[in-house]
Amino acid sequence: MGKVFQVVDGFCYYDASRLHESVASIPEGIYPPSLHFVDAPDYVREGWGYDETQEGDARFTEPVPPEGWAYDRETGTFYEIEEEE
Predict the structure, then answer these.
(1) Could you read off the pLDDT of 46-80 as tens digits, one per residue?
(2) What's the Cα-to-Cα distance from 23 to each of 4, 16, 42, 72, 83, rounded to whole Å?
(3) Distance (Å, whole) CA 26 – CA 84
(4) pTM for this one?
(5) What is the dihedral of CA 75, 18, 43, 25, to 10 degrees?
């Protein structure tokens, strides 16, 4: 199983998985041709990067957290890293 994302400006913008099983299952003509959808692995979330020049799972990159923060892949959120004293 996987997910279906609408890609906008190099980002996984909208998770359309609850509407479509795969890109191949999207009925022709239901969306304007300007919208771009891709099949993605289950772990990808909205806000991940998408690089169409890559192949397979390498097309998807998780968000880069700002300094002092980390990204939680399980929840898709950022959290502040506690400094050790």
Answers:
(1) 999 999 999 999 999 999 999 999 999 889 999 99
(2) 6, 10, 14, 27, 44
(3) 50
(4) 0.83
(5) -170
